Amino acid sequence: MPWVIKRTDTFLKHLKELKNHHELIHALDAKIQRLNVDPEAVGGMLSGTLHGKRSTRLVASYRLIFQVDQPNSIVYLVAVDHRSVVYK
Question: What is the CATH number of the domain that holds 54?
Answer without folding.
Answer: 3.30.2310.20
